Amino acid sequence: MKSIVVFCITLFSALFGNAQENRELFYADPTIYVGNGKYYLTGTGGRRGGPSGFNVLESEDLKNWTLPAGASDSVYMVLTQGDHTYGTRGFWAPQILKVDETYYLTYTANEQTVMAQSKSVLGPYRQKEVAPIDGSEKNIDSYIFKDDDGKFYLYHVRFNRGNYLWVAEFDLRIGKIKPETLTKCFDQTESWEATPNYESSPIMEGPSVLKLKDKYYLFYSANHFRSIDYSVGYAVADSPYGPWSKQKENPIIHRSIVGENGSGHGDFFKGFDGQLYYVYHVHFDQQQISPRRTRIIPVNKKWDAEEGLYKFSVKGNEVIVPLMAEN
Where does the secretion signal sit in this chain (predicted)? Predict the structure, then answer.
């Protein structure tokens, strides 16, 4: 009798696990835009197929996701290769932001940062002039930050025997950086940024920026994305250019905290419940890296009066696994 019960439990777990896995989302380098009473999720890839570019899902609760109305072929494209957009390959790491009545989508293609725009969060995002932001050299992983004084800054990655974070003031009107302001953020200096589990050149990427009480908080991922120790830490500065002080509690998102390998490269957003969240990706499983799975985690911020800044941590036992809603 006991063996029959065990068999039934095992069979149920296998069936349930497979059913959930079939509904899981597979966006790497994800971002979530909040507006119009909904959450909008996009990222690199996604398991639902479609042409090259970026597709999107929407949700009202972060757990159950659906295609926007009007989707065809099981996918809703917000930006499509060749449709007045730069790039033929390597569409990575999008970010959506709204300024006045215009939506902007920045992304990587052909190892160049790119910006397109639309009058709707659901696109289509297109360019008036089909070109990258700065074609002078390769640069990826764009993140546009708007400061309180109305100035914009482009945080991104440039290559020099590794991946390093850079920042420059950004002219949103013409979609170009101000080259004279281009500044490297920092070098690889911490042990958690280069663990021995996967040997590679220095890698720091996937930037996102928050400003709180006149302090700038730059969050980034370190280690190669194939490493089980791909993870997220942050640094603090008094200026958008730095100098940056890396925090001793780094990394704040790591496999030892969230329970899955390769946890990193995401973006912050505030939920309708007022909670701060971070959306990120993890490896497919213990043996396989891709397709990378999408995860969402609540973030704590606590004021440290002695240091005069916020300290960040995540609720590792409250990770949300977003799923396609059942029909």
Answer: 1-19
233-243 burial code (b ≥16 CB/10 A, e <16): bbbbbeebbbe
Per-residue pLDDT reduced to its tens digit, 259-282: 999 999 999 999 999 999 999 999
53-73 pLDDT, tens digit per residue, is: 999 999 999 999 999 998 877
Task: State yes or no: is 190 an active-site residue.
Answer: no
CATH of residue 319: 2.115.10.20
- pTM recorded for the entire structure: 0.93
Residue 7 has pLDDT above 80, yes or no: no
Into how many domains does the chain fold? 1
Gyration radius from the chain CA atoms: 20
Its domain, for residue 129, covers 2-324
Active site residue 29: yes
Taking CA atoms, 226 is separated from 191, 195, 255, 264, in Å, by 17, 12, 13, 11
What is the pLDDT, as a whole number, of residue 51? Answer: 84
Which of 141, 205, 229, 267 is flagged as catalytic? 205
